[in-house]
Design goal:
- The chain is α/β, with parallel strands linked by helices.
- It folds into 3 domains: 149 residues, P-loop containing nucleotide triphosphate hydrolases (Rossmann fold, 3-Layer(aba) Sandwich); 61 residues, Helicase, Ruva Protein, domain 3 (Orthogonal Bundle), CATH 1.10.8.60; 90 residues, Up-down Bundle (Zinc Finger, Delta Prime, domain 3).
- 55% of the residues lie in helices and 9% in strands.
- It has 14 helices and 7 strands.
- It has a 5-stranded parallel beta sheet, with helices on both faces. Strands 6-7 form a two-stranded parallel ribbon.
- Helix 11 runs antiparallel to helix 14.
């Protein structure tokens, strides 16, 4: 399947652009450029697990065929993010001629938004000086973290989170190859747990398949260990009815029993707010309070204290004082 770094193993390594789902516009542009045997520098931007690294690998394999390993250098910028990596590894690889019919090599910089500003400035000059012998493919989660001179040198490809139908297509393909049985309800839970991240979805599926070839919604929920919406609804119902102590006890029980972090609970509360039987104006205020609590937790505040404060806001809202 896909290993921890998101690279396809040989059995499932895509050999054609059609293997990438949910990114039709991006794939069409990339395929057209690859077929011309003259790709520009490329910048792949988008969420994790949407096919950026896989598309880069497909482009290289289609360009160089059997010589692709000799003409391809992959670096993870989050591990090697300083200026020395650009001056040494990248320059040494970029200045040499390629093997085969394509007149340039390809360097893939994964997580390029982790490069320091100094390293990005060095990369900018390298891209300019060695464009005759090397093309760069940069991958990042946020294109805004890439300096403007690099962005202007690249063709930008924006990836999006996969929709349910795309996840379902991939899951069904793997289930057929691995002889797994999976229900539509299980796929629904799998999609909600992965939140459109294909890599996470496949890793969850692989974990479940090691337990049983019959994939059920209950098994998926156990592996994902997400907060169950019905449990959060009980907590919020207690709070809105004014019973702060029972809401607090139920919340503590959920967090200890399911080993959940404060951020996991905050996300579940944020989703459930809009299903509550309260006025839209109150929902807006509660969403604002949820955001404040999430920010404080991220900044290092005690999660349970912040969640208790959030429950207090729900109690006040239920009593008409929110």
């Amino acid at each position: 399947m896909i290993n921890g770094s998101g690279i396809w193993t040989e059995k499932y390594r895509p050999s054609k652009f059609s293997e990438i789902v949910g990114q039709d516009d991006v794939v069409k542009r990339a395929e057209a450029l690859t077929n011309s045997l003259n790709i520009p520098h490329m910048l792949f931007a988008g969420p994790a697990g949407t096919g950026k690294s896989t598309l880069a690998l497909i482009i290289v394999e289609e360009l160089f065929k059997e010589n692709w390993r000799q003409n391809y250098l992959e670096l993870n910028a989050s591990d090697e993010r300083g200026i020395n990596i650009i001056r040494e590894k990248v320059k040494n690889f970029a200045r040499t001629m390629s093997l085969g019919r394509v007149p340039f090599k390809v360097i893939f910089l994964d997580e390029a938004d982790a490069l320091t500003p100094e390293a990005q400035q060095a990369l900018r000059r390298t891209m300019e000086n060695f464009s005759a012998t090397c093309r760069f493919i940069l991958s990042c989660n946020y294109s805004s973290k890439i300096i403007d001179p690099i962005q202007s040198r690249c063709a930008l490809f924006r990836f999006k989170l996969l929709e349910k139908k795309d996840i379902e297509k991939i899951v069904q393909r793997i289930a057929e190859a691995e002889k797994l049985t999976i229900s539509s309800e299980a796929i629904e839970v799998l999609y909600e747990g992965s939140e459109g991240d294909c890599r996470r979805c496949i890793n969850i599926l692989q974990s479940i398949a090691s337990i049983s070839p019959l994939i059920t919604p209950e098994l998926v929920s156990t592996i994902i260990a997400n907060v169950k919406p019905k449990d959060i609804r009980v907590v919020l119902d207690y709070a809105l009815s004014g019973d702060f102590e029972r809401a607090r006890e139920k919340l503590l029980d959920i967090m200890l029993k399911e080993s959940l972090s404060g951020q996991d609970v905050i996300k579940a509360i944020q989703k459930e707010v809009w299903n509550l039987p309260v006025e839209p104006g109150i929902k807006v205020k509660l969403t604002e309070k949820t955001g404040e609590a999430e920010f404080r937790i991220v900044e290092g505040s005690d999660p349970f204290i912040q969640l208790q404060a959030l429950l207090a806001s729900f109690v006040l809202a239920g009593l008409g004082r929110g």
